[in-house]
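Apologies for my clumsy wording, but are you able to produce some protein sequence, whichever is easiest, and the tokens describing how it folds?
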Amino acid sequence: MSNLENITNKILEDAKIEADRIMKESAKINQEIMSSKVNEANEKKKKIVEKAAAEAAMIKDRIISNAELKVRDEKLKIKQEIINKVFDLSKERLKELTEEEYIKFLTNNLKSMSLKGTEILIVPEKMKTKVKSIESLPKVSENETVDSGFILKDNDVTINFSFDSLVDYLREELETEIAQHLFKE
């Protein structure tokens, strides 16, 4: 039996050596796999962090850009409100012309027109008496009035020289110039 024991022991010893070799190789392969997976995970982590940083920068830029647009829009809105106030104040000041200034405005504008003598003049209520007293002017309407300026009617033709209409008519032309004057930047 000693031969059989020797053979058995030899087989067991060879099996143990082979098992140790397989275990060492398995541990080495395991370590390589783990190292590879850790490196892969680190690369993915790096890419995710880079992508997140890029997205954060893009979001930050977008937020800043939107804020700048809102500020610009708000400034434009305020500037437009100021320009509107300038035109409103102009209309109000024109309504406050003295009788002398009003008559000068009226006569200067009527001089530049070819009048037939059939026209009806519509003026503000407070100016009717003064305008009627000037004989060279067209007949003044008794029933109609205008807030400011004057309106000249002849049959179906109406010429509107009310200050509101004149200022509105000139607004587009004057708006840029007024803005440049008010908002020197």
